[in-house]
Amino acid sequence: MIDEDFLFFDDWGRLIDKTAANAKRVRRVDVCWRVQKNGQNGEIITYWRDDEDPRWCPVRAAWRICMRHRQRKLPSWMPLGIYMTTNKTGCFT
């Protein structure tokens, strides 16, 4: 998944600019799943903000992942899920 696969929306369904917004405005996120094992490639799934237990909120988690990617100034085409192995090579999730 890349940064463009996440679209964030406010309470009124307006698209939020990720470069200028804060997490408090985000009500939902639409995630485009480009490749799936079930063959439904390109499927868009909507996740709503969970105010009852913010620790497990999928919208806040997606926002943090996207913001961390932007803070590190990584290219937009680079996958969001990368980790370093013990021999310092990058692996995609």
Give an overview in words:
The protein is α+β, with helices and mostly antiparallel strands and 93 residues long. It has one domain. The protein has 1 helix and 5 strands. The strands form 2 sheets. It has a 3-stranded antiparallel sheet, with helices on one face. Strands 4-5 form a two-stranded antiparallel sheet. Strand 4 (82-84) and strand 5 form a beta hairpin. 10% of the residues are buried. The model has no long low-confidence stretch (mean pLDDT 85).
Provide the fold topology.
Elements: E1 6-9, E2 28-33, E3 43-48, H1 58-71, E4 82-84, E5 90-92
Radius of gyration, rounded? 14 Å
Total count of domains = 1
Distance between the termini: 9 Å
The secondary-structure class comes to alpha+beta
Number of helical stretches of at least 4 residues: 1
Characterize the overall form: globular
Can you summarize the main beta sheet? 3 strands, antiparallel
Beta-sheet strand percentage? 15-25%
Please estimate the helix content.
10-25%
Q: List the secondary-structure elements in sequence, H or E.
A: EEEHEE
Low confidence ranges: none
Number of strands: 5
Mean pLDDT: 85
Strand arrangement across the biggest beta sheet: 1-2-3
